[in-house]
Each structure stands twice: as structure tokens, then as C-alpha cells.
Write a structure and sequence with these properties.
Layout (H helix, E strand, L loop, with lengths): L2 H6 L2 H12 L3 E6 L2 E6 L5 H8 L5 H11 L7 E5 L7 H8 L5 E5 L3 H13 L5 E4 L2 E2 L4 E5 L16 E2 L8 E6 L11 E4 L5 H6 L2 H7 L2 E5 L5 H7 L6 E5 L4 E6 H7 L6
Parallel strand pairs: 3-4, 3-10, 4-5, 6-9, 10-11
Antiparallel strand pairs: 1-2, 7-8, 7-9, 11-13, 12-13
Helix pairs in contact: 4-5
Length: 263
């Protein structure tokens, strides 16, 4: 609030605004998938849970469930750009009794803590959560300053090159998925707000060896850029799943799972 607006308010109105600012913007909300810790100012997320008891991405989840239900027991799923867990929590709930595991990455500290709280509230011991971003190699990026008390869509915050960081930006560690040397990965979901190309390049060794299905947001960088990132990997086919996401999948696994995608 600028000084002129503050002067125009009565003392009572100023006190109310000050008290509201002192409240935590994060609240626990129940849903059909369990309990989430949500920013009440976050566009889409809180409103959907309050009014419907469901996330605003139920159509996307339904498509992911079709894939996950066909994976063999003990599946390992990577959630890159997990936010507060609208994908991590439903998937972890769905596969917990099949010995499945989710490995999630969220670089925003407050969203990382919100997701960690949700995992505890839902007793989800089959999730490993890391406060890291995904890139082509171990490096740093800049997280712009975020006001969690102001209405926004916090899931659309993009990391910036570290060299171009502003004074109030926070340093974020990036890792390449290949560096984890995971013995099994069945599905990788990437929604990393423009870093999808780099994240895929940092996982090429894993993709070649494990042949996971890839659910990738192409909305910001375009379908062609995703295809380019995977050009060195043979046998993958590509399909547009909705206006934001595409599925990149090894043709042999699609056949064995009884799935088809339109190129």
C-alpha cells in the first residue's frame, strides 16, 4: 500500500489491514485427495479447494492416473516443480499401497515447506522432497522476491539466470537428475516454468537407461523445444495432452501398457 492510500484510510481501516497482513497467508484445506497447505491469496488453488473440494487440475490428474495405474508395482515417479503438491499428493496417495514412491522438487522455500507440511498431515512416507530446482547441470538460479500476502498465481514464478539476479532475489540450487543415479524411474512430470529444456537435458542419461514416460509442460517454451531436448533419444513418440502438457513416451512401453497417443 502506498503512502497516499494509507493516509486516506481511517485508523480503524489501517488497523484492519495491518492485522490481515499479520495473518499467515497459508491455510490447511481438506480435499478429496487429502489435506493441502494452500496460500489463500493464490489464484485458482484456494478457490478450487474451498468451492469444490478438488484441485483445479483434476482433468490433468485423471490423465496421469491412467498412466500411473498401468505402471508396475514399486514404480518411481519424479515431480519436478511440485509447488504445494497438487500432483505429488494425489499420486503418492494412489500408489502408496503398491510400494510406489514419488521424488519431488520445489525450489520456492515457502511452497517447499507447505508441501512438506501436507506430506506430514497425510502421513505420506513414500515421498522424498527436495528444495532444489532442476537444470542441465549443478548450478544456481535466481528466485525473484515474492510477496505471499498479495494475490497472485505463485505456481507461475519463473527462475532467472543467476548472473542477471536482482538485489532482492534469492539464490536457488539446481541439480541435474542424472546426478542422482536413480536405479529406477518410471514417470517424470516436469512443470518448471520455462526450465523444461534444461531439466530434460540434465536427465538424458536417466532417460536413455530407464526409458521413463515424460509428462512435460510445453506451454512456455513450445512443443518444438521439448522435441529438440530429446532428439538424441531414440524411440520416443510425442502427443499433446492438453493446452499445457505433452506426453513423451518410449513406443515399446506404450504398447506394453496398452496406451496410444496421437502424434
Amino acid at each position: 500500500m502506498d503512502k497516499r492510500n494509507a493516509q486516506a484510510l481511517s485508523p480503524n481501516e489501517q488497523a484492519l489491514n495491518s492485522n490481515e497482513r499479520a495473518l499467515s497467508p497459508f491455510v490447511a484445506l481438506d480435499s478429496i485427495h487429502g489435506t493441502f497447505i494452500v496460500n489463500r491469496y493464490c489464484k485458482f488453488q484456494a478457490e478450487a479447494l474451498v468451492t469444490t473440494g478438488r484441485t483445479h487440475i483434476e482433468a490433468e490428474l485423471d490423465k496421469l492416473f491412467l498412466i500411473v495405474d498401468r505402471l508396475s508395482d514399486g514404480m518411481v515417479i519424479i515431480d519436478g516443480g511440485a509447488n504445494i503438491g497438487f500432483v505429488t499428493v494425489p499420486l503418492a496417495q494412489r500408489i502408496r499401497h503398491r510400494q510406489g514412491k514419488v521424488i519431488s522438487f520445489e525450489p520456492q522455500p515457502m511452497l517447499f515447506h507447505a508441501l512438506g507440511g501436507a506430506l506430514a498431515l497425510n502421513d505420506l512416507e513414500n515421498v522424498r522432497l527436495y528444495q532444489l530446482g532442476l537444470g542441465a547441470a549443478a548450478s544456481k538460479a535466481a528466485l525473484p522476491a515474492i510477496d505471499y500476502h498479495s494475490p497472485s498465481d505463485f505456481g507461475t514464478v519463473s527462475l532467472r539466470p543467476f548472473a542477471d539476479r536482482q538485489p532482492d532475489a534469492e539464490a536457488v540450487e539446481l541439480i541435474a537428475l542424472d546426478s542422482l543415479r536413480l536405479p529406477r524411474v518410471d514417470l517424470i512430470k516436469l512443470d518448471v516454468e520455462g526450465y523444461e529444456y534444461e531439466a530434460l537435458r540434465g536427465a538424458l542419461g536417466l532417460i536413455r537407461s530407464q526409458r521413463p514416460l515424460l509428462w512435460v509442460e510445453y506451454f512456455l517454451i513450445g512443443e518444438a523445444r521439448i522435441r529438440e531436448a530429446l532428439a538424441e533419444v531414440p524411440g520416443y513418440v510425442f502427443g499433446i495432452m492438453d493446452y499445457q502438457n505433452m506426453l513423451c513416451a518410449p513406443s515399446e512401453k506404450l504398447a506394453s501398457m496398452g496406451l496410444k497417443i496421437d502424434p
